[in-house]
Design goal:
Layout (H helix, E strand, L loop, with lengths): L1 H16 L8 H5 L8 E7 L17 H21 L7 E8 L7 H9 L1 E4 L5 H24 L4 E2 L1 H7 L1 H5 L5 E7 L5 E2 L5 E2 L2 E2 L4 H6 L7 H8 L2 E2 L9 E8 L8 H15 L5 E5 L3 H13 L2
Parallel strand pairs: 1-2, 1-5, 5-10, 8-9, 10-11
Antiparallel strand pairs: 2-3, 4-6, 7-8
Length: 295
């Protein structure tokens, strides 16, 4: 009887010491780290007069032509990424934006066509369809903007303030935003100052702030110059700026432009960013491909 008693006692103790199955906290489940293999690529195009071949000619390669080649490289990097995945894991998007929208109603159709999405039901012929769209439509966009000739500027600041989270960030994706711009920022509807910080940057402003010497960084810091912060936390967004093109006459202009952008990104908690000058597409393509692959 004693043996039976001790055996029952041991079984009872073992049962008590067993841990209950761990319950999954639904809040924690929702905060699982996004799959880096799912990418969401956005392209924001500055259609200001920087693309006008009459105002800013370049005999080597016009700036609007450079842009279209940058976009092709972005599309190439995006498709390269898709091709590394199994079809069942496809969950990737790419799209193009302008801010503000150009007056040509065809632009809406162009952007709709350039909004592409891959999922597990995507057919093999979709790859060639995407390649065709991205080899033809971007050129149509620039030609339309140049023909229209109404360069009202590019409201990049307002895009970051009111649209970037809704348009360019998906919680379960690695989010990459490419901005095609000369680095200057100006729009008549979003032009204001907060103390000495501004929502815009022009060559005239750079001169008026005396940012024309090698000591420009100290001047910026001392006078607390820069862009007004447009958002609080964009840590889940990677940004690549392509096409920085300073006006001639100030050898430090490019450095000032990049300093403004870098400080702005850091203030908005963007950790991963690159700011590149308007180089030939053949030189920037490897950088673009690497930015998308993350390697």
């Amino acid at each position: 009887m004693k043996k039976i008693f001790y055996l029952l006692l041991i079984i009872s103790l073992v049962s008590c010491c067993k841990k209950e199955p761990e319950k999954i906290d639904p809040i924690k489940a929702d905060s699982i780290t996004p799959d880096p293999n799912n990418i969401n690529v956005s392209i924001l195009i500055d259609l200001s007069d920087r693309i006008d071949p009459q105002t800013h000619p370049n005999p080597t390669m016009e700036y609007f032509q450079r842009d279209t080649e940058y976009i092709k490289a972005i599309e190439k990097g995006f498709l390269n990424h898709i091709k590394t995945k199994r079809i069942i894991t496809f969950n990737d998007q790419m799209q193009v934006f302008f801010n503000p929208e150009p007056s040509d109603p065809k632009m809406n159709e162009f952007t709709r066509e350039l909004k592409i999405s891959f999922d597990k039901n995507t057919g093999k012929d979709y790859f060639s369809s995407v390649e065709k769209k991205y080899s033809e439509l971007p050129s149509n966009i620039y030609q339309s903007a140049i023909k229209d000739g109404k360069y009202v500027g590019s409201d990049i600041w307002e895009f970051f303030k009111n649209k970037v989270k809704d348009y360019c960030i998906k919680d379960d994706h690695r989010n990459i935003l490419f901005i095609l711009t000369d680095g200057y920022m100006y729009h008549q509807n979003t032009k204001f100052e907060e103390e000495k910080k501004t929502s815009y940057l022009t060559s005239k402003l750079i001169k008026s702030n005396n940012l024309t010497t090698s000591d420009f960084k100290n001047t910026i810091e001392k006078n607390k110059l820069g862009f007004v912060k447009a958002n609080d936390n964009l840590s889940n967004l990677e940004v690549v700026v392509l096409g920085i093109n300073p006006e001639k006459g100030n050898p430090f202009e490019e450095g000032v432009i990049k300093e403004y952008w870098e400080s702005w990104f850091k203030e908005m908690k963007i950790k991963n960013y690159q700011i590149k000058s308007a180089d030939l597409p053949s030189n920037l393509e490897p950088i673009i491909l690497k930015a998308i692959s993350g390697k």
